[in-house]
Amino acid sequence: MAATAPISAVARTILANARILRAGPSVNWFLLRYMGKFNVLQRGGRLIVHSHLPPLNSKAYSRFIDEHLLAESPGPSHAQIGITDACPQNCGYCYNRGREGVLMDTPTILAVIRELKSMGVFWIGLTGGEPLLNRDIVRIVEEIGEDCSAKLFTTGSNLTQRLAADLKQAGLFYVTVSLDHMEETKHDQIRGRRGAFRTARRALEIFRALGGMHVSVSSVLSGDMLRTERVEEFLAYLQRLEVDEAWLSEAKPSTQACWKLENVITESERQDLIRLQDRWNKKGGLTVNYLGHFEDRRHFGCTAGQKMVFIDPFGEVSPCVFIPMTFGNVREGSLRTIYGGMRSRFPAQDHCFVNTNYMHFRDHDGRKLPFGREESLSILNEVRFGPLPQFFRLQNGRSGTRRRQQDRQQTGDR
Ligand code: SF4
Predict the structure, then answer these.
(1) Could you give the percent of the chain with pLDDT greater than 90?
(2) Does the pTM exceed 0.85?
């Protein structure tokens, strides 16, 4: 497990980023309170709040400050790319189910990465299918480069010590291995493959043994694992495995088989997980990062299609991995243009889009997913977006004040 960063290292990093103060007192106070909920860890010379944000002393974090906090870039900050659809496992909740077409080749994936970065993306999740089954994964990681955080989401299949070392050498720092349960048979059952648990455990050992990487476990909580005492048990188990972070999320109603109320987390279960996360992080050691906390209305909310974008293995552009809608294919138009059209229809909002709108999917012909552009637009006509989450309210307030000051200045100048 990574050590807690010394106060002096955190202080030096804060001073090096002092320009963040220009984002205004309310945004800074928000960030301080948000980040204060996590222990800052030190691993391989990097300071980490959690793996959904770049290390505090990285070029990627500087881009977050300069391009998003200060320049208020309208582009996305986070992207996920499906670099293959092949996967030896078969999870019931898989968001890739039904997606099909012609796979993106490596030059297309590299071009997508370059375009995403030019649009402001500073965090890229490599997913699939199983991303390690893409034979060019090392080249893909290299392309992401130092000024953008890469995070690998893997089942561990196909990992060798050599491949892990090559990925590290190429610049990979954040890795997360899927583990949904602490009981071998249960995990294998959820993943639809015998041996999945052992594969995951072995991958964790390989990455940990390499040293200098931030190693987390990604868990999709469903069924009995949504009970607080089960999650507590699971986190204690992960602590014994000495991983750096537990990245928790719940199963989402992304595909036909899951478009049912009983598959959607309740608000009280969600709040229980947020409290549990906060309790664990106060203890120190293992970082607990529940996505429902990041995406809560008091924090960053749902930024699907606004700050988050997903390019699936076939080049379809969706607002988030869990939303089965496409707004175009990267081979048929510029990613910037497709994203621009999508973004104008997806304001940041205070609740998870897919959890609250999956019922609209049922009324449309969802035999083939994702829904095409026209069908997606028609679904959006039935959707009511909620108010802005706290972070964007504060940022908008700041921009509003700045605009009013500029207006007053211009009026005074006349
Ligand atoms: S729809 Fe929004 S809140 Fe839900 S998982 Fe996607 S980005 Fe997160």
Answers:
(1) 84
(2) yes
